[in-house]
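Box 3.1 A note on notation
Throughout this textbook, protein chains are presented in two layers. The first layer is the amino acid sequence; the second is a token string describing backbone geometry. Keep the layers aligned when reading.
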Amino acid sequence: MRFPRLRVAWGLRRWLRPGVGVKRWLLLVFVGEAGLALAGALWLRQVYRDFEVTGPFQAVVSTVTLQFLPYWARAVIVGTAGVALFAFGAWRMVRVLVTPFVPAEADQPLVDVIFQKRFLARGPKIVVLGGGTGLSTLLRGLKAYSSNITAVVTVADDGGSSGRLRESLGIPAVGDIRNCIVALADAEPLMGELLQYRFPGDDAEALGGHTIGNLLLAAMSSVQGGDFEEGVRQMNRVLAVRGQVVPATASAVTLHASLVDGSEVVGQSTIAKSTGIDKVWLTPEGVVACEDAPRAIGEADLIVIGPGSLYTSILPSLLVPAITDAIRASRAIRVFVCNVATQPGESQGYDLADHLSAVERHTSPGLLDVVLANNQFGAKRPGAYAAEPVRLRWPPASAWPMANTPRLVLDDVVNWENSHHHDPARLAASIMKIYERESFGRRRSRPVRTA
């Protein structure tokens, strides 16, 4: 049998637990109420003495003030009644003030919702860089640990809906930005499905192949006078993103690659299918980073690079000079998350050492503090997808200058239902363990000034 009074008492106890942030203010209100009560008692005592109250009124006052009881009994009764009324009133007041701002579909008590939001607001400042499915997977896991997340997203995509909007409107690719906004948004699940809805049909039709989210981002950019960065910033606000999603650059860039046979390939979608990639670069030269990106990196406690397609999702963001310079200057913990599987074409046959070599060739030694790789290879493999797990070959000692050797961390971070993807919860938990272990005694990063 359940007792309502016990449930109310337990609810009040949860409101007073550390982290909710109401105890100090309730104490202040209680002190104020006690002061008012004391002032009223002093006034009543003075009136009672000065005017020599007698007759029926004296009997009423005597009864109301419980003068027929000992002093200790009066204190217990009045004190208990006061605490009960104060607690019940405060509880109902908080519910009335906060309930309108809590999502209707929340399936947990109001106090737990508030505790979670305050806990996340105190989380570390995390910056993640990349694109594609890997980045949105990581974001879905990390948002359970912090709301101070900045996703710096590549805009080099030139295929599908993003490519068509880029060609017709001259804006950077928006597909990966859309996926990251959906991953971090606190909007209703139906809104997420709406943003990901793709109109049926092919490229020959006006809306064929376009997603609602891509069109909204393009429209928001136009509403902001063609300012793509501000358009993305406003989409973050409108969809209540837990953190922020930032394009690596507001320029419409093109990805190029040179192959080991000396040939050159142009375009992200073409490079993704190419093998034997030696180097990638962006045009036009001297790409300017969105100002929010280096600022967030400079203020970060944790920087996570990857996972994602090596040459077409991870490296394009690192090819923006201001972003790489900010990472290099940061005092944050810098973690590289290696893919769990190779990708047919651009990373076919790559092992862990090959992934690290590609990152180092395009940036500089000493950029990474920790490398996280999967060490479990028993997950289910999709039938027709020609990929294999990334083998754990570590570069020889001669490949790393002694002071710049990152630390290797192996963990079970694979999705056991699909060996080609990370598991969001496992990956985020492993990264946060690395952060807790590596951050002890480390100084905070300094903000990076942008021009």
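DSSP finds 17 helices and twelve strands in the chain. Residues 87 and 93 are 10 Å apart (CA to CA).
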